[in-house]
Amino acid sequence: MNIHEYQAKELLKAHGVPVLDGGVAYTPDEAVRVAERLETPVFVVKSQIHAGGRGKGHFKEPEAGDKGGVRVVKSLDEVRENTEHMLGRTLVTHQTGPEGREVKRVYVESGCNIARELYLSMLIDRATSRVTIMASTEGGMDIEEVAARTPEKIVFESLDPVVGLSPYSARKIAFALKLEGGQVSACVKLLMSLYKAFMATDASMVEINPLVVTADGDLLPLDAKMNFDSNALYRQPKIESLRDEDEEDPAELEAQRHSLNYIKLDGTIGCMVNGAGLAMATMDIIKLYGGEPANFLDVGGGATRERVTTAFKIILSDPSVEGILVNIFGGIMRCDVIAEGVVAAAREVSLNVPLVVRLEGTNVDLGKKIMAESGLPIISADNLADAAEKVVKAVKEAQ
Fold first, then answer.
1. Taking CA atoms, which of 151, 298, 304, 305 is between 20 and 30 Å from 213?
2. In the predicted model, what is the mean pLDDT of residues 163-181?
3. 100 appears as a binding residue in the annotation
4. Measuring CA to CA, how many Å separate 346 from each of 310, 322, 395?
């Protein structure tokens, strides 16, 4: 689960991480009120969407004076003007894709005099199953670009889960960032607070880019991005309350409400499978036969007819879907339940794309009978390879 920058900064501040003063605003008047209380000659107005690259982004419908989604201004009038210019418009960045995201709120923050820009993040390294710190002297840039051009400028510190973050490891990062004097102790303190926040909130990543050294020598997070382990949200109600559903895919949200594991992809063949491993294998074999999966969808081992029907509707809600492959191995999940759900959904939504179904396992004969007697144009498959070949062929013939 992702949250907005202003929410991340509030969380970090609550755990002792120093951040600049600022506030969220949903209207130009609110933005001016926030700016008035900051008492600073320079303000930064930031579009709040769940995507990076806002400063380099552009608005979907260009207007005179467009300057991206992050702007430095020097008066209350400019705060109002730029807030009016951002709110309600669609911001496109390299992370949003061409469809962009609508800006529904801005974050107004005090400006600062920047001397250096650094990069700092904490994340779960799946290779080691440890919290790992990434740091670089090349802040303000995409870390992927730094990794591609100058990988030697990125340092990693893997943390022992028993020890956690020690002052020794924190100092190593400070020295790698070429900090000096009091900046080293400030960096150690910031890192310790950052680690505390990371662990306390069940975060999966905290990224500060840039972490700046000001002209006065202070160390401050100029931007902050956090995301969290969705599997831990049951014990993090305060974090879950920060969720902005407007920033999430409607189909994925609907799937979550029905305990379905759904992720939209870029292909044209919708998949409904029971079991994550089988779902991955299904997507792989679709690609092997020349197709592209439109989604990952795991209905789980104990899905009801209603949940299967919902899953089918979610797949068909994607306009890019040109064919559907249902691949079920019935263990706990009975094949007749799947068949009933598929038939019910196909009738309800007036199915108009090829549908290939492969069933094996508990009550498979009954499931096949239900589909055969449905009167619907369901293509039956004998095995996974047969199913993938048939759905790819059917989609190509229908084009």
1. 151
2. 95
3. no
4. 11, 14, 17
